Amino acid sequence: MSLNNAAATTATPASTCTCGCSTRARRYGSDTTDTQWAILEPMLPTPHHSGRPEKHHRRAVLDAIFYLVDNGVRWRDLPSDFPPWQTVYGFFTRWCDHLTAITLVDQLREHLRRAAGRNPTPTAGCLDSQSVKESADAVVPAATSGFDAFKRVNGRKRHIIVDTLGLLISVHVTPANTRDTTGAYPLLEHASQHGIRHVWTDRSYHGDLITWADNTLNLTIEVVERPKGQGFQLLPRRWVVERTFAWISRRRRCARDYERLPEHHETMVYLAAALHMSRRAARLHTT
Questions:
Q1: Do residues 131 and 157 touch, judged by C-beta distance below 8 A?
Q2: Other CB atoms closer than 10 Å to residue 240's CB: what's the count?
Q3: CA distance 70 to 109
Q4: Domain 122-259, CATH 1.20.1290.10 — does that match?
Q5: Model pTM?
Q6: How many whole angstroms separate alpha carbon 252 and alpha carbon 71?
């Protein structure tokens, strides 16, 4: 199976490694396989030609970021066989500021949709939110945190929209006391730019949001109601986004909120999705 043409046009030159990280042993469960790296490498941004040249291999840097996302360690506690943590953190912040993680997820989603015989651009998706407790380290500022009285969670709330395969399209992080409808506005606006025209939600998304989406974005919101008088059951379309939340929460850095900036929490979610999606794409290449 060939990679998509958009990814191939942004091929990244091999980084010159002066520390030996390019030949480090792949000993961690989060390390990229050769097939996985072959998929991811062309999707990473091209190094800048100005300024100091990169002296650590891109694969080692990405492995270090995936290790942190998967295992939830502190930046300073990254194993010594990775590049220095300051270098890895610098890549993370640049990829956050330049929206590299979003672009990476977009390309992986298109790649997986093509592999599944789908149109690379989704037209329907599912929207939901999840409140996440902040860590006990007091790194989350009070200004960007809140208390979700319904879920009894003090922290932040991540609003996500996924396609019908459960592949992440967009994420928006707010204080946990933010109403679901309030957090949905920027999310739906971003999703509509990706071609989304129909979204399934639960009953917490109602009223003016539905009217605004229809009139402003030409996007239809369909509320999937829970049958009355019945216990737990998988609801049509709604289970897809719940499964995506489970995929994200498996990554320990995303099980709680350890990020000072909401933008960094969003990037962690995108990277957790990229780790899952790249593994899925690698399995398709080896079968």
A1: yes
A2: 20
A3: 20
A4: no
A5: 0.89
A6: 5
